[in-house]
Structures are given as structure tokens and as C-alpha cells.
Design goal:
single chain, 472 residues, six-stranded parallel sheet, alpha/beta, 19% strand, Rossmann fold, 17 strands, 16 helices, globular, nine-stranded mixed sheet
Length: 472
């Protein structure tokens, strides 16, 4: 195993993406908090990132990019269909998000899931030197810890789930529940976004795998101790705060406000186009706000950006049709000449454009039906250097456990949500500042680097001290 790495990251995707420069194909670092948090770790201690390139067919040869070894794992077109679009996103995604849509339990999807997880485990086995650390990420790779443990008992293996982990009555529906749990129990540390997720996992491990709980936060299984706990992920606070403080960002935000109409209050929603995000319910609540007379299209406007997502999957194509039909319906009923009620964008946003929207908004609407964490809420808070603005936050997000000064909503309750939007418009500026100041302190202190350090501390054998976080 000589020449391997001290830290191995195993994730569904590589930390880079294909791009074109001067007509040539090149690798570019992907945006996002996970890459920002983990690439410094790999550069510091030396390491390899194992993942899929995003293209079906044969994988590129291993390559170095900005001080990190990238080890691509190949997926055939059939495996993309069965492992990724099928079992990962047709079975696990809806099941883990409280069955917002009915999960599909198709046996023909299970075997590709097993096969691809085995391929990732083989890659980690090859890359990892003796007694090194392997950190596996997310729902696509839940079998990897157990598969790797059988191959390499010398390794310290961690697993982190970025989405919710469901309660017993939902997880029990999964025909392969035992295999998934045994896969996760192969890790030394299993991390979740919230304590509830960790507790759900512990209950299921005891029920279906015979695990016991010798001490709080640990499970005993197959002669090993497994630590399970909450490690709430966050964002790179200073990146958002620094961009927002740049005078150019303020100019862009002012330009947004002028284009939308001087004097209008701006509601903002930014989401991946996913049925778990509750975009349709949010649109209905905004319509209810206007129809109730609590606000008018002269007073306010909703800007909704839906970032394209999983467009090959039929459920996502139907969600786009549903959302866009509802936007058209609302604009047809409520808009006036020169005063569009809803500005809808179906596109990816550049970083500068995203921060300008955060700065321009008066009220940020983060109202998913279920979400493991939701980093948009933290990005908005980090961007508000002026300590103004209101965050309306679904109580069914992981972020709700930390950002206690937000205005909470039940996203299934359209009338209640509309009333909350009216309250957000009326919130005094001093109360806005008090709430925003508290939330900014939390996001600044518990940033994405704190998350990575906390998990690494336990994975490297440190005391599994109480991993509490301050709520704001």
C-alpha cells in the first residue's frame, strides 16, 4: 500500500468538473461547501478524492488537480440509470425525505446499487495506505463502509449523511433495510445533520441488526464500537460575507431593486428544482398574501430561482411543469402592466449574481417540505452584513435547529405561511437586526470548517465530546 494517501474522501462526484478553456477540455474545481471544506484537508495531509466524473462510460485516468489526487470511478449508462437515477433518487431520496413522493422499490435497481458501491469500496481499498482514514459521503454510497471494513479492518472509516435519516416507520418499508444498516455500521463514525437523524439510526440498528448502546452516542456491533452523532454542516461564512461587503455587490443589488421596481419589497426563493423544496406551496402562499389584501403587486414581488436538477428523471420534469404552470397562473391573475407578481428563473446562478440577490431581498423564503440542512438559509444570513432582512424558514429543515431567530413556518400550511409572510413584511427594522445578528454569530462560529474539524476529531480517535452548537 506504499504511496497511498493519509485521507481518502469517497463521494458520488469528484471535486472537479469538465470545462473548456481556449478550446481545450480542462478540469475546474466545483463550487459548493463540501469541496471548500474538504480540499484544504487533503492538501494539508495528502489525500485522494474518489468519485464519478459525471459522464457515463470509461473513467479518465487518475490525475492531480491543485494538489489533490483525483481517482475517477466509471459508471456505465445502465448503472447511471439503475444506481443513480433509480435506486439513489427514485428509492432512497423520496424515502429519506418523509415520502414526500412515493418511493419506488424496484429490485432491478438494487443490484446496480450494490455493484457500484462495491466498485467505490475497491477504489478506496486500492488508494488507502495501512491505518489511514477514509471518509465516505452520502446516501448513494451507504454500503461502502461495510464493504470496505471487510476488506480493510485496519482503516478508520467515517460516513456522513447529507440528507435526513428517516424514522423507523418509514425506513422499515425498505426491502433492503438490513443491508443498508449493516453497510453503515461498518464505519467507525456515522454522522448525521441532526440529533434526530442519529437517534433514528441508533433505534433501527438496535432493532434490525442487534446493536446495543453501551454509552450515549455509541453503538456496539460485531465486536466494534461505532460512534453516531450530529455534525450539522455549514457554509464558508467569510466567502459570502466578503463578497457581500464588496461595493460592487451592493451596486449589483441596487440594480436588481431598480429593475424590479423602486419601493417594492422583494421576497426571494432560491432552490434546486426538486419536489422536496415546496416551491409550489410557497407560490400558493404568496398568491394568498396578495389575494387577502395584506399586500399588493405594487408593494411586493417574488423572485423565484429554480436551479435545474436531475432533468432526465420523469418526476423532476413533472415538477418543473407544475411549478411553471403555477407561476403563469399567478402572473395571469395578479400581475399588472409593469408590475409582474412573480419573476421566475430556471437557471444556474453565478456566485456574484447569487450574493447580489441575497443583498437585494427583504424576505428570504426557505420553505422545503423536508431538508437535511439547507445551506441557502445560511448563505443568506452570511451575506447580510447590514443585519437587515428576514429569514422565513421551514421547521422541517436541519437549519431550523440552529437558526432559532428565523420566522418559522409549516410549509404544508398555505394560510399559515401567507400570514407569516405578512408578518415578515411588518417586522420592525430593530427586530430584524436583533434576529439577524444572532443568526450571523451562529453561522460565523459554526462554519463548514468547524464541521470538518469536528468530524475529523472523532474519526481520528478523539474523544466524542458533546458536539453541541449554539442556537440563534
Amino acid at each position: 500500500m506504499a504511496g497511498g494517501s493519509e485521507y481518502i474522501i469517497v463521494a458520488n462526484r469528484l471535486p472537479v468538473r469538465r470545462a473548456t478553456r481556449a478550446g481545450l477540455a480542462v478540469w475546474r474545481t466545483s463550487p459548493g461547501g463540501l469541496v471548500s471544506a474538504l480540499t484544504p484537508v487533503l492538501r494539508e495531509v495528502g489525500g485522494t478524492w474518489i468519485g464519478w466524473s459525471g459522464a457515463s462510460g470509461s473513467a479518465p485516468e487518475p490525475f492531480d488537480h491543485e494538489g489533490i489526487r483525483n481517482l475517477p470511478v466509471p459508471l456505465s449508462r445502465a448503472e447511471v440509470d439503475g444506481f443513480y437515477e433509480g435506486f439513489s433518487n427514485g428509492t432512497l431520496w423520496p424515502l429519506y425525505h418523509d415520502c414526500v413522493r412515493a418511493p419506488q422499490f424496484r429490485r432491478r435497481w438494487w443490484q446496480p446499487y450494490v455493484r457500484v458501491n462495491e466498485r467505490f469500496a475497491e477504489a478506496a481499498d486500492t488508494a488507502a495506505p495501512r491505518a489511514s482514514h477514509v471518509w465516505v459521503h452520502d446516501y448513494q454510497l451507504q454500503l461502502v463502509p461495510g464493504m470496505l471494513r471487510r476488506r480493510r479492518p485496519d482503516l478508520r472509516i467515517g460516513f456522513f449523511l447529507h440528507i435526513p435519516f428517516p424514522p423507523q416507520e418509514l425506513f422499515a418499508q425498505l426491502p433492503w433495510r438490513h443491508e443498508i444498516l449493516e453497510g453503515l455500521l461498518g464505519a467507525d463514525v456515522v454522522g448525521f445533520q441532526t440529533r434526530t437523524g442519529a437517534e433514528n439510526f441508533a433505534q433501527l440498528a438496535r432493532r434490525y441488526c442487534g446493536a446495543t448502546t453501551p454509552t450515549a452516542g455509541t453503538l456496539s456491533h460485531a465486536g466494534r464500537t461505532v460512534h453516531c452523532g450530529a455534525f450539522p454542516i455549514s457554509i464558508e461564512f467569510e466567502r459570502f460575507a466578503g463578497e457581500a461587503a464588496d461595493p460592487r455587490a451592493r451596486e449589483r443589488a441596487a440594480a436588481v431593486r431598480r429593475r424590479l421596481g423602486e419601493g417594492r419589497r422583494i421576497f426571494l426563493g432560491i432552490d434546486r428544482l426538486d419536489y422536496t423544496k415546496g416551491i409550489d406551496m410557497r407560490l400558493k402562499a404568496f398568491r394568498q398574501l396578495i389575494e387577502s389584501g395584506a399586500a399588493t403587486v405594487d408593494d411586493c414581488v417574488l423572485v423565484q430561482t429554480a436551479v435545474p436538477s436531475r432533468e432526465r428523471v420523469a418526476a423532476y420534469r413533472r415538477e418543473r411543469q407544475r411549478v411553471e404552470h403555477l407561476v403563469g397562473e399567478i402572473n395571469g391573475e395578479l400581475s399588472a402592466i409593469g408590475r409582474v407578481a412573480v419573476h421566475y428563473l430556471h437557471k444556474n446562478l453565478e456566485f456574484a449574481e447569487l450574493v447580489a440577490l441575497y443583498l437585494a431581498a427583504d424576505v428570504m423564503l426557505v420553505t422545503p417540505l423536508r431538508d437535511g440542512m439547507n445551506l441557502v438559509s445560511k448563505e443568506f444570513v452570511a451575506s447580510r452584513w447590514d443585519e437587515r432582512g428576514v429569514l422565513v424558514l421551514s421547521e422541517f429543515t436541519g437549519a431550523a435547529h440552529e437558526l432559532r431567530s428565523a420566522l418559522f413556518v409549516n410549509p404544508h400550511d398555505v394560510d399559515g405561511m401567507a400570514a407569516r409572510l405578512a408578518r415578515a413584511l411588518a417586522l420592525p427594522q430593530e427586530e430584524q437586526r436583533t434576529r439577524m445578528r444572532a443568526m450571523r454569530q451562529t453561522v460565523r462560529r459554526y462554519d463548514v470548517f468547524h464541521w470538518a474539524r469536528s468530524f475529523r476529531h472523532v474519526l481520528e480517535g478523539g474523544s466524542p465530546r458533546r458536539l453541541a452548537w449554539t442556537t440563534a
